[in-house]
Amino acid sequence: MSLTNASPEQAASAARLASRKLAVLENSDRNDALTAIHDALLGAKATVLEANARDLEVANKAVTSGQLSQSLVKRLDLGKKGKYEDMLQGILDVRGLDDPLGKVDYRTLLDDGLVLERKSSPIGVLLIIFEARPEVIANIASLAIKSGNAAILKGGKESIESFKAIATIVSEALTKSKVPNDAIQLVQTRDAIAPLLKLDQYIDLVIPRGGNELVRSVKDGTTIPVMGHADGLCSTYLRADCETEMAVNILLDAKLSYPAACNSVETLLVDQDALESKFVPVAEALVAKGVELRCDELSKKALSKLSSEQLSKVKDATDEDYNTEYLDSILAVKTIPTQSSAETSLVLAVAHINAHSSGHTDAILTTNSGIAEQFLASVDSAGVFWNTSTRMADGQRFGFGTEVGISTNKIHARGPVGLEGLTIYRWLIRGSGQISTAYGSSGKQWKHERLPAGSDEWVAQDAEELKLLREHRSNKGLSNGH
Amino acid sequence: MSLTNASPEQAASAARLASRKLAVLENSDRNDALTAIHDALLGAKATVLEANARDLEVANKAVTSGQLSQSLVKRLDLGKKGKYEDMLQGILDVRGLDDPLGKVDYRTLLDDGLVLERKSSPIGVLLIIFEARPEVIANIASLAIKSGNAAILKGGKESIESFKAIATIVSEALTKSKVPNDAIQLVQTRDAIAPLLKLDQYIDLVIPRGGNELVRSVKDGTTIPVMGHADGLCSTYLRADCETEMAVNILLDAKLSYPAACNSVETLLVDQDALESKFVPVAEALVAKGVELRCDELSKKALSKLSSEQLSKVKDATDEDYNTEYLDSILAVKTIPTQSSAETSLVLAVAHINAHSSGHTDAILTTNSGIAEQFLASVDSAGVFWNTSTRMADGQRFGFGTEVGISTNKIHARGPVGLEGLTIYRWLIRGSGQISTAYGSSGKQWKHERLPAGSDEWVAQDAEELKLLREHRSNKGLSNGH
């Protein structure tokens, strides 16, 4: 890793060259580099936290003078209980994951002696632009190295001291590994973002980690593909047949466990026939914890028996509320009017979500499995959940070790993005002289026979197992599956 | 399908709404629509070819006056032997493929009663901008419908008559199916492209099907992800140990079977020690078929014994030649100087390819399997082939039925893009009240146990098979594979 004052072009072209070397390293070499980073950051905790304290001091002054938000300071604080340890654990978790490279997930016999396979490979060079969270450096560096990608990191000025401290430590740690020094570039040049975004000949993917404004400005300023999300407008749909205590617990978790997070719930949809029985207890629990509710007419009316103190937290919703990501202790509430059938209510709720949500994560609370499955099938968001909190949308919770971010893109990677989202594939053909014009209407026929996939070593074993499976299936009168 | 004069915004918002209906249709309904399109186009061949003849007449005049290239006219001609039948067969091939939707390729037990799965889904709304090839309408409509995506098609003025004829027939055919009429929109409004490219709230992916200039202008004009390739600069690396006859056949196929195609070879890399034995016969065969060779000094020198007539086709290469996609009967030739070892030559050839190729398809001709595997591992292109023609890079040849195009993107889909490249996934969780704050350092531990994937019906069967597999493996002392 190098903490560089190089020009954006120098940094990017060096990263490109290094990416080719990194791409062909063994998994054990990439893992050794992660061990080195982990051990170095473990040993230097005090140094990093001192640097972080300097960033926090500046940030807190900016909060006092109204230039920065309190939630940014929270994200900046590496000293918060368990945060540094989580960062270290994340590196080990990533190290422990299967090698994402060299996996063959598709193999076809095109013709005798002509085999096509699809093999996972690194994307190449990533550009990660982040704002306040300094632990992102360790997360991203781990994921990038494990997935064989070079990365250029550009941090915000709020975390500059933490950034420099972590970068110096990681850089030193990497010199003892086989990962090329230029594979992870930490750019501290001022005004580097705009020129970096023009370098599509070197950079393959941009991942902005920050607020809506950052993401939009990145998207507008580049022809490089951008992965991430501008908004996290998540909703939860509450039905009369759900369990009250479960609904209360889930919505408290979804709204309050981290209101500034992208996966917090922002809109609550309530069936009209659930207003009295389910919404009132949910609202009481939320209000008791200080949540402000922005209600439509019907849902507000359902709360008329609340105390005047409670009612001070209940406001009228405008149309804008259903398009707003509050990132705060506020929840918009909308009633789905009673319909002739349960399915029709569902259709309305789904239509609201598909029109208003940001395609991040949406949930349904119900005991009716038929309705739940319809919801799971119809909502077009990266995450669609049944009877759990939208806050579950997270790479660590999904078992990815850590994540580079959550994507609301409609291509490549959606939802929490871990190692797999940082890989792509190449199509390999091993032939024996075949030419294209030999095939077709007047020539030879393609065989197009799907072969077992898996790693190369795995194939011989697969072949035997496939035979066994087929025998087993035919003994049981089962079909062949695929 | 509607052939529309609607505004770009109307067309795109109607496509968006229709996409949600199309996304939840059964595979059988989507297949029925393909049958209807096939039958209608089969019955109306004469009508379509008459319209196509009118386009050809205009185009041929434009060629005479130098406004259009001959290769464009070739692409426009639907009457060319077998082309119409290939188009019809492509629809049936796509129909016959497995349903790409609803496939669960990843499933994790997060905790008891909390199951995560990743399920394939349509992307949403595609915008396809194409130039001359009118058969693209049938290909794209089939792939879009089968993959559950709405599509907006905008054709070039050269194919306007063919476009209108095909669109009218397909539109009528679709009225008898369950596919919503607005799911396939054929926009004939003039100057619609620039406004369509701004509609990122409705359109999820743009696929330009045309020349370099079209692709670049699309990329520069939109924040919507673009899938495709601007250039197809493919190379082939010729080594002394390859079989001469095979090399000649493969290079004739790669250069001449369709010089205007993106997967034709444009650069030949030759090891110095292969110049006499392999390059000379290859060059003679190519020159005899009218190919012009643009050679570096060493390779030109190797051809000094050719006749003066043959030598009239041998020119000097400039640096620019190694960055040029000729789309014509021209081939750039570069010598890889003799190195101390076979591996070092390979490294130089790979470095040339990674620096100059467009990441489309590159091939090696050798009998040395160790060298071939190193090449397959190191070249960073969508397709990397051994002992076969770069022309194999094609969706139909890969067994995809047909393709929406070939992608040199580094994310989402690379190489020939069929149905799978038109899908994405959603993460579904089925829970029973779990909340995020219950887990972590002080709470419950995640289970993160990988479960068998496959369709829902497949799971029960999988469970039994997995048990059997594990028994089988443990009996044999084998590891568990993944």
Automatic annotation (TrEMBL), chains A, B:
Enzyme class: oxidoreductase
Claim: DNA repair is one of the keywords in the record: no
Keywords, alphabetical: Amino-acid biosynthesis, NADP, Oxidoreductase, Proline biosynthesis
E.C. designation(s): 1.2.1.41
Pathway: Amino-acid biosynthesis; L-proline biosynthesis; L-glutamate 5-semialdehyde from L-glutamate: step 2/2
Alphabetical list of SUPFAM superfamilies matching this protein: ALDH-like
Catalysed transformations (reactions): L-glutamate 5-semialdehyde + phosphate + NADP(+) = L-glutamyl 5-phosphate + NADPH + H(+)
Top-rank taxon: Eukaryota
One Gene Ontology term of the molecular function aspect: glutamate-5-semialdehyde dehydrogenase activity
GO biological process annotation, one example: L-proline biosynthetic process
Role, per record: Catalyzes the NADPH dependent reduction of L-gamma-glutamyl 5-phosphate into L-glutamate 5-semialdehyde and phosphate. The product spontaneously undergoes cyclization to form 1-pyrroline-5-carboxylate.
Family per similarity comment: Belongs to the gamma-glutamyl phosphate reductase family.
Full protein name: glutamate-5-semialdehyde dehydrogenase
Organism expressing this protein natively: Microthyrium microscopicum
Species classification: Eukaryota, Fungi, Dikarya, Ascomycota, Pezizomycotina
